[in-house]
Automatic annotation (TrEMBL):
Cofactor(s) of this protein: pyridoxal 5'-phosphate
SUPFAM superfamilies reported in the protein's UniProt record: PLP-binding barrel
Pfam families reported for this sequence: Ala_racemase_N (PF01168)
Coiled coil: none
Protein name: Pyridoxal phosphate homeostasis protein
Main function: Pyridoxal 5'-phosphate (PLP)-binding protein, which is involved in PLP homeostasis.
Family according to the record: Belongs to the pyridoxal phosphate-binding protein YggS/PROSC family.
Source taxonomy: Bacteria, Pseudomonadati, Pseudomonadota, Betaproteobacteria, Burkholderiales
Length: 235
């Protein structure tokens, strides 16, 4: 079985090839290694291979892992990519560097209020529901502009961009539509004066389609750490 460092190398090669195809610079896409359900030693193995940014879904699991890896905190960037309830915002504001899954103003307000002063602002993405069906998470596209303008005004968080978890789709051409939608929503907010540099989209099965449509951060779990007992994103 290929090792975690070999898998990271392979994913980086996929990202570079996709960038070449899209006429984008190779460094324009950040790899977020999704370490949910993986033990701290798997994160250490990825760290040793030069990986710094890690994504987690489940708040309590992530807090335990961040604590277990406290000796390497300065080398690590922790991103929450899973659902966040309002009663869990304080530990998240204290422990994470980024939150990708903000879809309500109340959550962003609490994160801003609870972000400790000695830390730099918490970096945020707004999760957008880009699928037609009644998905459980993500702001609806027509409600996005008002939410983005309100979040951008909060003092202790910095709105960086948008995130989406499209419905699984095998066809590489059809994979592009939800990513293109997220990009156009981001472009729309930019014309409204918001300085957004991040499109968090693309997973193990669709990273090429996401890079083609402008992803700046791809979230890769399975292709780095192998299949999980709990597959798929918790939405
Ligand atoms: C699990 C998860 C990923 C990674 O998915 P893979 O298919 O394993 O690459 C990405 N984003 C979110 C939000 C997830 O929950």
């Amino acid at each position: 079985m290929p090792s975690i460092p070999e898998n990271i190398l392979q994913v980086r090669t996929r990202i570079e090839a996709a960038c070449t195809l899209a006429h984008r610079p190779a460094g324009s896409v950040t790899l977020l290694a999704v370490s949910k359900t993986c033990p701290p030693d798997a994160v250490r193995a990825a760290l040793a291979a030069g990986q710094r940014a890690f994504g987690e879904n489940y708040v309590q699991e992530a807090l335990d892992k961040i604590a277990a890896l406290a000796d390497r905190r300065a080398d690590l960037e922790w991103h929450l990519i899973g659902p966040l309830q309002s009663n869990k915002t304080r530990p998240v504001a204290e422990a994470f560097d980024w939150v990708h899954s903000v879809d309500r103003l109340k959550i962003a307000q609490r994160l801003s209020e609870q972000r400790p002063d000695h830390l730099s602002p918490l970096q945020l993405c707004l999760q957008v529901n880009v699928s037609d069906e009644a998905s459980k998470s993500g702001v609806a596209p027509d409600e996005l502009p008002a939410l983005a303008q309100a979040v951008a005004k909060l003092p202790r968080v910095r709105l960086r961009g948008l995130m989406a978890i499209p419905e699984p789709e095998d066809d590489p051409v059809r994979q592009r539509a939800p990513h293109a939608l997220l990009r156009s929503l981001r472009d729309g907010l930019r014309t409204q004066g918001l300085d957004l540099d991040t499109l968090s989209m693309g997973m193990s099965a669709d990273l090429e389609a996401a890079v083609q449509e402008g992803a700046t951060m791809v979230r890769i779990g399975t292709a780095i750490f192998g299949a999980r007992a709990r597959p798929g994103p918790a939405q």
